[in-house]
Amino acid sequence: MINRTVEVVEAPSADVRLAEPPLVSELCVPERLVKTRGSPDPDGDVVQSLAGGVFAASGDGLLFLSCLDLRSTAPGASRVRLHPSGLDPTHVPSVTRLVCNPLTRELRRLPDSGFDPVGDVLCGLNMGLLTQADRGHGPPDKFAVADLRQGNHMLRFLSETGKWENVALSPCQVPLARRQPVTPDQATLAFGGRLWWIDLSWGAISADPFSDRPELSFVELPRGSVLPAGAQKEAFRRGSSLPDAEGRAWWKQASFSYRRMGVSEGRLRYVEVSHEEPFLLRSFVLDDEGTGWTLEHRVVLNKLWGSTMGLPLQERGSTRIFLIDPLNANVVYLAAHRIAVVAVDMDRQEVIGCYPYRSDLCMPCVLPPWLRSSRIPSAGKKYVEKNKTLADVLVRLQSH
After folding, report:
1. For the chain, which domains are there?
2. Taking the chain, what is the end-to-end CA distance rounded to the nearest angstrom?
3. At 304, is the secondary structure helix, strand, or coil?
4. Which ranges carry the DUF1618 domain (predicted)?
5. Using CA atoms, how far apart are residues 127 and 119, in angstroms rounded to an integer?
6. Tell me, what's the pLDDT at 75?
7. Dihedral (Cα; 208, 212, 215, 216), 10-degree rounding
8. Which residue has the higher pLDDT, 136 or 85?
């Protein structure tokens, strides 16, 4: 696991502190690589802070990072060192986007997207990272960073050209209300040679960012899990609560806490926790045609909690999806009562591990052994494949 929060530090290079899962790996980037718009007056009431995050991971372990130059207001900060009271409304943050090899600590900074400063900040929160190897396997020869835009367009960066561009998307029969899938804390996924943008109230839209004219396709969530159009937007308007599939009740927190989509054992999977007795944990796998889901596991959580652990029984809203294990489709990690992270083997229907709870913000990432001897692709450059064997080394990301 890797912490999705990236620390910006004064250092000559990136620092990656790898940890064995379920412990969380940490990533720091050097301050010198983060673009800023000057420095605030040291005697004023504005404080500068550099914030970063991991927003996506490729299928072969490369990470996509984004860092912001933020300014916060703190009246009297220069005199009494008060904590910032809010963002400075007059400052437009600059954005730095990077691709990172966590094993070699190599960082590649991407050029500006070409948007106006405000648009540059707003775009990219759902960018995904996809790699491609010319031989079909091994170290990547190129990568793409992409996000869906309004009006059937995709914003993408291709390592082969070294440039950002807006490209038209082939029309797709996606309902208008579902055109912009955005679920906070659910990263855009790289799977099957495509990027997948997830709306956990409805489903996923995918496209191939390397295509000259990317074509959208979509798949809904399993039957009974699809919420009404606009449910997620309404949930956040009402304070991060969301109705269940029948619209009968409002959850205390947003749906992404209790739903998760991820890639495990080379297939796309969806996991959810119900909020009514008997508190079911269910896991689905996308079929080979990419058109429907098959139920794989169904586990009654109260039986596990009561028989194997010293935790309180499941209550409404007390358990959330923490992580889908990318190497073992039978295993899912749950955050229970904000007390512990619990590893559940859904096939055996038993708890196989319990660890102290830190935070929900993390991301899975599989690190193949050849990543340690490969380079991040650049325009006009090819790198020799050192080792073609994939490893079972897993780093899962979650932030505090």
Report:
1. 2-399 (2.130.10)
2. 12
3. helix
4. 197-333
5. 14
6. 61
7. 50
8. 136
Residue predicted with more confidence, 81 or 153: 153
Copy the structure tokens of residue 170.
């082939």
Of the candidates 74, 77, 76, the one whose C-alpha atom is nearest the C-alpha of residue 85 is: 74
| Of the candidates 51, 54, 46, the residue with the CA atom closest to the CA atom of residue 36 | 51
Query: DSSP readout, 212-274?
Result: SS-B-EEEEPPTTTPPPTTHHHHHHHTTS--B-TTS--B-SS-GGGTEEEEEETTEEEEEEE-
At 153, list the tokens: 């367009």
Place of tokens 């890797």: 2
CB 299 within 8 A of CB 349: yes
* Percent of the chain with pLDDT strictly greater than 90: 46
Residue bearing tokens 């039986």: 303
The set of residues, in sequence order, having a beta carbon less than 8 Å from that of 308 and lying 6+ positions away, is 350, 351
* Tokens representing residue 157 in the block: 């960066």
Q: Which two tokens stand for residue 319?
A: 């358990």
Model pLDDT for residues 222-234, shown as the tens digit of each residue: 988 998 776 666 6
Interatomic CA distance for residues 63 and 81, integer angstroms: 35
- Interval 168-193 mean pLDDT: 77
Please state, as a whole number, how many other Cβ atoms lie within 10 Å of the Cβ of residue 197.
25
The residue whose two tokens read 């073609």 is 388
Asked whether the predicted pLDDT for residue 346 surpasses 90, the reply is yes
